[in-house]
Amino acid sequence: MADPRLRRQLAEGKFVAAPGVFEMITARIAESIGFDAVYVTGYGTVASHLGLPDAGLATYTDMLSRISRICELSSVPVIADADTGYGGLLNVQHTVRGYERAGVTAIQIEDQEFPKKCGHTPYRRVIPLDDMLRKIEVAAEARTSDDFLIIARTDARTGHGLEEAIRRAEAFGNAGADILFVESPESRDEMAEVCRSLKKPCIANMADGGRTPILPAAELQELGYALAIWPALGFLSMGAAVAHAYTRFKETGSSTHDDVPLYNFQDFSKLMGFQEIWDFEERHKEVAE
After folding, report:
1. Mind telling me which Pfam families this protein's record contains (predicted)?
2. What's the whole-number mean pLDDT along residues 110-122?
């Protein structure tokens, strides 16, 4: 079931900052730190699960299997990428129902042509506005709870300009979207214009290395954003750390270096749930005669 807290937080004007998670280690770390929400990133999930680019190659089944597991673990609202809805209108209906059953709280659907591409890479094209509006209407009709929120994203900024992107986002809100996502504005002024122009809650995408300036949460809230996602933070930091550790190991033949921080093994075991296993075994151990 969708978590009602995200809707309440938006209604109360509380800014929500959600880190990107993409597999179970990042999900467990995010859970242990304590966030108001987490974001299941399509880019990171496809890279982690399939070792492939986020270019429309992952299926609904690929994504749902990972998202379901993250929802089971998470005690906070889960926002999840659903690309274009994985096809036409019937696919959108199927996707919304599946994500909602899995425990997702907010589903992100975008207006790209299929196959879609990461929103900060080139050669993205958008579908006609009317086609996207029908997708949003189907999504709103398919959900069973108003706590299940629809995030409608437009990728029109790069190819058609900011004015067209804002026009589309406004139409998305009128069609039933709860949260509006103008992807890849290219300056702070553009980000401010998005928030000034749109009446429904807006989401910012803080994709490190992408087209949009990376701003702190307090500044995003000041601009007028209701929530923001940091989708790449987890996989870029993990990639950098693993690359450094493996390089030093290759160079020296050792895993022990002052410049290679390692998670304490006992703490990591507890993070993965071993404490519950140890407690169970202690309760049920055989009594020596």
Report:
1. PEP_mutase
2. 73
